[in-house]
Structure formats: structure tokens, C-alpha cells
Design goal:
The protein is an all-alpha fold and 215 residues long. It has 9 helices and 2 strands. A hairpin with a 3-residue loop joins strand 1 and strand 2. The longest helix is centred in the C-terminal third of the chain and has 28 residues.
């Protein structure tokens, strides 16, 4: 098993290390900045005031779509998604990426879970909301899928970066919209969750590769 992990393709392709490191640094800065801006503040200002009233409380059929997305971020739904992706990676002989699928999600969710009580932002007067764990999880899975595809397709740096960030944005926007539409989060909570994943997954991928190379 050690040999299988050591010889498996990198979880973070070499061409993506520098650009995703810069992306992670920027995402961390935005995550911290928004956390400071909304520190123990649950009021509607800026982008939240502009977007929330038009999205919150969406009715059928879009509400059903939002509920489907939301299920993907719940314990049962997320476990299924992570398990399926990890198995696909393993069958494709991307063992490091299979490990990243699990660890990347765990680290991302851990970051959002730790940040929430620190920032102390609430919605509906009682639920800690910043950053959005659902949005972070969806973005994390999208980044892992993009890293797998970029490696399998042999994409160059520019195309790979576009793929990773493109899929991350699509997943983040979809889940973020669902969470805001269902009244579970403010729009900036979704942005924070998106940034948490962009910061956590590349760092975790780098760590997986370093450990694998030392086995």
C-alpha cells in the first residue's frame, strides 16, 4: 500500500502548485477580511443587503432544486458524494487524490467549523452562519474533481487553472445560491465558505504529496 501511494500521480500537479498557492493565499485573505468585517455583526449591509431580499425564500420549483443542492452538503449526502468520488479516484489509480477527497473535505469542514464561533455571526438570531460549510464542502469537492481531470487530461498550466477555478466557481455559486435561497446563510457567508475551500484543499493536497513522497 505504501508503494502504491508513493508511486501514484500527485494530488496536486506540479504545474498547479504555484498558481493555486497564490489563489489559496488570496482566498485566506478574503476569508479573514470578511470575518473581521462581520465579526459578531448579523446586520444586512453591502452585498448582503443587495442580494438577500431577491433570493431568500425562493418558491417552487426552484426551492426543490435548492433542497437537492442542500442535501449534498448534509451529513448523509456529503458522505455519499465523498465516498463515490474517493472510490472513483482509487479505481482510476489516483490513490493520492482518493486520500485528498477525504482529507480535503475534512480539513475544509474543520476550518469552517472553527471559524464560525470565532466570528460569531448569526442568522435568524441563533444559528452561526459565517462561513458557509455547505458552500465550502461543495467547492472542495469541485476542486478535487478538477485536479483529477486536469491530471487525467494532461492539461497545461493555464487550462488546468481555468478548469480548477471554473469548476470551483460553478459549485460554489450553485451551493451558495441554494443556502441563501433556503434562508440558511447570507451571501457573504457563501463567499467565505468558497474561500475556505480554495485555501484548504490545495494546502491539503500539497501535504498529501509530501507525506506520500516520504513513505
Amino acid at each position: 500500500m505504501r508503494q502504491l501511494v508513493r508511486e501514484a500521480p500527485a494530488a496536486l500537479p506540479a504545474a498547479l502548485r504555484a498558481p493555486l498557492a497564490m489563489t489559496a493565499a488570496l482566498a485566506t485573505a478574503v476569508l479573514v477580511a470578511l470575518g473581521i468585517l462581520h465579526f459578531h455583526d448579523s446586520g444586512l449591509t453591502g452585498i448582503d443587503a443587495a442580494i438577500l431580499p431577491s433570493v431568500d425564500g425562493v418558491g417552487p420549483p426552484w426551492r426543490y432544486v435548492a433542497l437537492v443542492f442542500d442535501f449534498g452538503g448534509e451529513p448523509v449526502g456529503s458522505t455519499i458524494l465523498v465516498a463515490v468520488l474517493a472510490v472513483v479516484c482509487f479505481l482510476a489509480r489516483r490513490v493520492r487524490t482518493a486520500v485528498l477527497t477525504v482529507l480535503g473535505v475534512v480539513v475544509t469542514v474543520a476550518v469552517t467549523t472553527l471559524v464560525k464561533p470565532i466570528v460569531g455571526r448569526t442568522i435568524h438570531g441563533e444559528f452561526l452562519s459565517y462561513p458557509s460549510g455547505h458552500t465550502a464542502l461543495a467547492t472542495a469537492l469541485a476542486v478535487v474533481i478538477a485536479l483529477l481531470l486536469a491530471d487525467r487530461l494532461g492539461l497545461g498550466r493555464a487550462a488546468a487553472v481555468v478548469l480548477v477555478l471554473g469548476l470551483a466557481v460553478v459549485a460554489g455559486v450553485a451551493m451558495g445560491w441554494a443556502e441563501v435561497a433556503l434562508g440558511a446563510h447570507y451571501p457573504t457567508d457563501a463567499v467565505g465558505g468558497f474561500c475556505a475551500a480554495l485555501a484548504a484543499v490545495p494546502a491539503t493536497a500539497w501535504l498529501v504529496d509530501r507525506v506520500a513522497e516520504r513513505l
